[in-house]
Structure formats: C-alpha cells, structure tokens
Amino acid sequence: MKVLIVDDEEHVRDGIELSVDWPKFGIEQRLMAENGTEALLLIREYKPAILFCDMSMPEMNGMELLQRIRDEGWDTQIIVVSGYDDFIYTKAAIRAQGVDYILKPFRKADLEQALERAIAAWRQRENSLRDERETEHRLRQAGALLDEQKLALYLKGEVAFHEGIRSLFYKTGLSMEKINVAFLLPKNRMELVDRRFSGDGELFLFAVNNITHEALRLYGSHYLCRLDDYQWILLTSSEGEGLSGLYPSYIGKVTGAWESTLGLKVLAGLCETAAGVESLPSAAQEARSALLQLSVVDRSAHLSQPAELPGFAAQEVLLLNALKTKNKIYIAEIIRSFVQTLRERGSLCLKELQLCSIEANLMLEKAARQLFYKHATDLSVPLWISDLDEWEKAVVRQWWALIEEEGGEAAGNRGIQSIRDYIHKHFQDNISLSDLSELFHFSPQYIAKKFKELYNTTVMTYMTELRMEKAASLLKHTELSVSEIAGMLGYADENYFSKVFKKQNGLPPLSYRKMHRGS
Question: Looking at residues 440-451, what average pLDDT do you find?
Fold first, then answer.
C-alpha cells in the first residue's frame, strides 16, 4: 500500500512521515510532492491508496488537486492537513469525499486515527470493486459457456441453425461462408489436469485457450468449442487466398504449441473442404469420421497387416473372480496385460479402441447389476479416450470403484488416513490424485469423496495449505528467494506460486516477508 504526502513545506512533510508508525498500518511506500502538479503526476504513476494533502500550495493548490482527483476518477482516500480553518477548504475536502480534515500543528494520534479510517475506507472500496469485477467476470463466463453450449448442440446436430448461432459468429468475427473444421481429442488431458494443474480443469482450459489465441492470432478469427471433456472442435475462418490449403499446417501449429507449452497431446481429424455456417454439422461429422481412422499407437514398421483385434470380453471371467476376492492388484494386472496386447498388435485406430470401451462398459454394467447394486453410480469408461495409458487407468479405476461401492467403511477410513499421513510426509513433491490412486489402490473418485467426508476439505486444498504453511515459515526464517521456495514446494511456475500464496495469506510472498521481518 502506498501513501502520498503533499505539502510545500519540507518540515511538514518530514513531520508527517516521522509521526506515523507506517509498518504497523501495512504501508510499503511513501511518496513526497511539493505541490498539486507534482502530486497529480505521482498519483497517475503510482496510484497511492492514501493522500495527505495541504490546501495552500504554489502552482496547483489543494482545492484544484482535489477537483482533478475527483474529475479523473481516482479512488485515493484523502486526508487534508491544513493550517487554515476555512469553510471553503473544508467544503472542497467534503466534495472530494475526504476522510478527515486535520489542522496544523497536528498530533501524532490525529494522523494515525485519520490514517486508520482512510485505510478502512480504501479496503472497503477495494473489496467492493473486486466484488464487482468478480461478478462481471462470472457473468462473462456464464455468457461464454452458454454460447459454447449452443454451438456444441448445433455441431452435434441436436438443434437446427438459429439466430443465436448467427449472433455468436458475428461476435467472434468468424466467417459465415468459409469455415475450416478440425475435430480434436486431447490424449492426456486427465493426467495433465491432475498433475500439472492440481485438478483445476478451468485453469487448464484457460491456458489452452490462451495458447490457441496466440498461435492463431495472425491467421484470423477462430473458436475452440468443447462438446465435452474429450471432444473439441476448432473452427477457423478461411477467407484469405490460399489459406484453406494451409489449414493442416495451422492446426499443426496449434497442436504443436499445446504440446511444447503444456505437454498436451492431441489427435486431429480435419474436414477437407471449408463449409458454410449452415452445413457445419455435416463438416464436423466428416472431421469426426477422419479422426476415427487415426491410430492411437505407434505403428510397427515390420507389421504389414495387424493381428485381429482382441476382445476385452475374454477377460470377464478373470475380472469377476478378482472382483469377488476384492483383489485390486490382480484387476490392474489383468487390464494392464490386455492393454499390452493391444500395443503389441502393431496398429490400433480410435474406432477399434472405442469397441474395447463399449465392451468394457457392458461388462461393468453387468458386474454392477449381478454382484452389487442395481443403483450403482455411473461407472462407464469415456468413449472418446484416445490414449492407451489413460484408457488403462480409466478401466482399472472403474473396476476398483465396483469394490469400493460395496462398502467396508473401517478399512476405507484407515486407507484414507494413510493417504493423509503420506501427504504430510511428501507434500513438497508433485503428488497427484493419480499418484495416490496407484500407491494406495483406491480410485481417484473414492479418495476425493472419502477424504472430504473425513477431513471436510479436498485433497488438493489440504496439500496447498500444508505447502503455504511451509512457504510462510521459509519466508519468515530463511533468506531463500521466492523462486527457490516455489521450486522446493513443487511449483514449477513462480508466478502461479505467488498467486496461490497471496490467495492463502492475503499478501504476495515478498510483502509477507517484509511485513514479518519488520515486526
């Protein structure tokens, strides 16, 4: 927080500065000006929260300065310190919504009381502005989500073309006549959100959209529409001469940027010709058909003809036996062995992997109905998974979830307590729900649910609180840099660490260190 002291007499400025215990009020910087002209320049540059202002000054006096502050809309809280008990000056302070009017010679107690009121008023104003900004942001997000949902329904062919779609195209600047369509599947989205973004799917999508805009900003208007977590459609205008032929290279530019920046890998199916807005559902279907033929494994050079697709249903007897004995490790081994068979086949297109997913879902439904619950929660494997590692984890977790559906409260609670103990010992490491799932043989959804029930918080929130406690201690008691502390606590991005720390402690790391070193 910054304070500006304006008075044409140096001894008055010094007197104000020496009279107040600034660290006690959280004041980090004090600025000085001799007149209103200098003060206005400093206000524009530094945006101080509090202004101590004399009224009688050369060049621009206090009345003019307060008028300019009000005209320019600054939120600076004003404390007048004047040698004149004049109604004109008092009226000017009132019109500028001044916090106090202190007569010279002033007392330290008067300055500090006025400062305390000014800080309270400034914080109230800041909170109000923050709430307004957050409300506006939520409204914009809700509007953007509604637009995306409208477009997703249209692209899936579930609604006819309507004016809402036309309005969205006008809003984004997309062409109505020549639109290129790419159908995209993020291959490792689940692992990436879990590990790199600590389960924050919104932050992940924010990063994806920013990279998309940067990669395509020279190309023209574009729109990334999510049909669901796994199916994305990228629309781009194709108005320029020859741009349509360059479309595959632009898609490669986007997907390459995602991989190099985030580690996100995708499969991309393209519609070969540009489409008009009213034929987009057909273009999306063509792009989807192209996608289904793409391989989800690296082809082996020595295999000219792949072996017959193995049936996952052949594993049913083994899985049911493991289910009866609640042997989670054996379940994982059975599924891992099947996935290895798929890899060794030499070729596997997305359409074939979807057949395996359909078989897996039929087996899960049958097992849930026959062995445990008619009302079992949704245990299906997403149809559009396009990565074998992610597919393996998803199937294993759903079979584990069948065991967890049966109950065993005491054993489950002991397992979650062991997970909490492990987090206490390893919170500085980059632990994800996926890691905990593999270590303790619980599905991620079970860990999340039971941890919240037992400790009234999420796993990630609990881990973040432990990290921030450690960070606060290191800031107070060591000379380690913010970057070093961030790295020690598992944060690759210092800026992200600083944002998390400020959210948890109310101050950025360096300000927190300065405040506690000064106390």
Answer: 88
